[in-house]
Design a protein that fits this description.
The complex is a heterodimer.
Chain A (H helix, E strand, L loop, with lengths): L4 H46 L8 H8 E6 L8 E2 L2 E2 L7 H5 L8 E7 L5 E11 L4 E9 L5 E8 L13 H4 L18 E2 L14 E2 L6 H29 L14
Parallel strand pairs in A: 8-9
Antiparallel strand pairs in A: 1-4, 2-3, 4-5, 5-6, 6-7
Helix pairs in contact in A: 1-2
Chain B lengths: L21 H8 L15 H6 L4 H24 L9 H23 L1 H12 L5 H9 L6 H31 L7 H4 L9 H4 L1 H19 L5
Helix pairs in contact in B: 1-7, 3-4, 3-5, 3-6, 3-7, 4-5, 4-6, 7-10
Classes of the chains: A alpha+beta, B mainly alpha.
């Protein structure tokens, strides 16, 4: 075999250029398709928080017909443009917004309209940290701005079979119907409890069953939900006022818990 | 590591060997059973445990591994006389890593849902001992066509085992096959699914049973 240092260096350099070129070619060539897939996935998630999607559904068509978007800031005011550029909710990168201070972030809101054209659900993106890496998702609120209609979660690197269960329907459907305000009208979001009883009746309107073996991921989900719902609270209150939804501020409304 | 190849020096004196001569057929057939990379050499266990909860990602993983193993075998075999001995492992790794990155990019572009599930494990094909083992033990010393056959053999040997494991895990753990609810379809509404099968422990058990059955059939004994 050839053993001279020059040969080895030249060989390695040539190999690196060829292999590196191949990879960059593939990366550039496949980029548009990948971006399309990511966009489609986002639409699927937003709709998935509100409705059961069938594999045959034409996601972009439903999305364009049913979803109306806006972007708000931390005080709940609608943001039309930043630095002269119009802001589009779908283009707001939640991950990079997450690196900013909460009051500087942009918060997209996706309004889902029902058959009658009325807004039937508000879908809010959420973002946070799990055990190993970031977690994120979408929370859909009913038009009363208080009841959770559905959630979708996703993760970058939670443990398969444990923390990664947040992506399963079984875990996500536990959140449906839960309230984000407690009985004295405080925003408390929804907490996953420690331990897994498998018995939904063991929990009140602000609690859901935990995931055994994935307590830290569950804590991450709790923090993510309570943080982001707090950030969205100014907007939610404005929207509730605009919709004339009665706020859960009197105790007599909530005597059942 | 397989020793089977080391003691089989390839001496191709005859001018034209049949495309599928007996010797070449063995390259493909041996790894399927007698010299299976998972059950006999006990390599590539990590991905066999991790990806096999459902059949469809397993199928994609199997195809990816076959692709990577065949083409890295081919490429290494083509350049085997140019590769400097002192950096050969790095060269093998670079070739594998390139192919794996290509697979990952293609999956992201065309099979996004599967990519989300598999991305981590597809990346781990780089460290899959089966692939590197074949490059080092076979492709470095054999002609391209033989290397491709060897890659196909090892790839399919890996594929059938993980598909078998995934079949039982999805059937018993999720009561479905490729996502199709078989038990509901034949009228058993509340089939008791086994949560153990969904966890990696289930894969260990299935794999153990497959190895047991196979070794009692072939009479293979670990030495």
């Amino acid at each position: 075999m050839r053993q001279s240092n020059t040969y080895i260096i030249v060989f390695s350099a040539v190999l690196t250029i060829i292999l590196g070129g191949l990879i960059s070619l593939a990366s550039v060539g496949l980029k548009p398709m990948q971006d399309m897939q990511v966009a489609l996935d986002t639409q699927k998630k937003i709709l998935g928080a509100v409705m059961d999607l069938q594999p045959t559904d034409d996601i972009p068509a439903i999305y364009n017909e049913r979803v109306e978007t806006l972007v708000v800031n931390a005080s709940g005011e609608e943001v039309q443009e930043v630095d002269g550029e119009p802001v589009i909710a779908e283009k707001v990168n939640i991950a990079s917004q997450y690196d900013k201070a909460p009051e500087d972030r942009l918060y997209p809101v996706y309004k889902y309209k029902g058959e009658d054209g009325e807004v039937s659900s508000y879908v809010l993106p959420v973002y946070g940290s799990g055990l190993w890496d970031d977690i994120w998702g979408y929370v859909a609120l009913e038009s009363d701005l208080e009841t959770i209609r559905g959630v979708v979660f996703d993760h970058a690197g939670e443990t398969p079979g444990l923390g990664a269960r947040i992506t399963t329907v079984e875990v996500q459907e536990r959140f449906a119907g839960k309230k984000i305000y407690d009985d004295i009208g405080e925003l408390v979001a929804v907490r996953m409890m420690k331990g897994e009883t498998g018995d939904p009746s063991a929990y009140n309107a602000n609690q859901v069953d935990g995931m055994s073996g994935a307590t830290i991921t569950a804590v991450g989900v709790n923090d993510m939900l309570s943080n982001y719902l707090t950030y969205y609270q100014p907007y939610l209150e404005r929207a509730a006022k605009a919709n004339d939804v009665e706020k859960p501020d009197s105790e007599e409304q909530y005597t059942d818990v | 590591m397989s020793t089977e190849v080391a003691d089989k020096p390839v001496k191709e004196k005859e001018k034209s060997e049949a495309l599928l001569s007996k010797r070449r057929r063995r390259f493909v057939s041996d790894p399927l059973n007698d010299d299976n990379p998972i059950t006999v050499q006990v390599l590539g266990i990590c991905s066999a445990l991790a990806v096999t909860t459902q059949l469809s990602p397993t199928l994609i993983m199997a195809v990816s591994v076959v692709f990577v193993i065949v083409f890295s075998n081919l490429i290494i075999s083509l350049i085997r006389n140019l590769v400097p001995g002192r950096v050969r492992i790095i060269v093998q790794l670079a070739v594998i890593a390139t192919l794996v990155t290509l697979v990952d990019q293609v999956l992201k572009a065309y099979f996004y849902d599967a990519w989300k599930v598999l991305s981590v494990f597809v990346g781990l094909i780089i460290t899959n001992c089966i692939v590197m083992g074949r490059l080092e033990a076979f492709a470095m010393g054999n002609k391209p066509y033989d290397s491709v056959l060897d890659g196909l053999g090892s790839g399919f040997g890996y594929a059938w085992v993980i598909l078998a494991v995934a079949f039982f895990r999805e059937l018993l753990g999720s009561a479905s096959i490729f996502g199709f609810k078989v038990f509901e379809a034949i009228g058993i509404e509340n089939f008791p699914t086994n949560g153990l099968m969904v966890s990696p422990v289930g894969a260990f058990m299935i794999l153990g049973i497959i190895i047991w059955v196979q070794r009692s059939l072939t009479g293979y004994v670990e030495r």
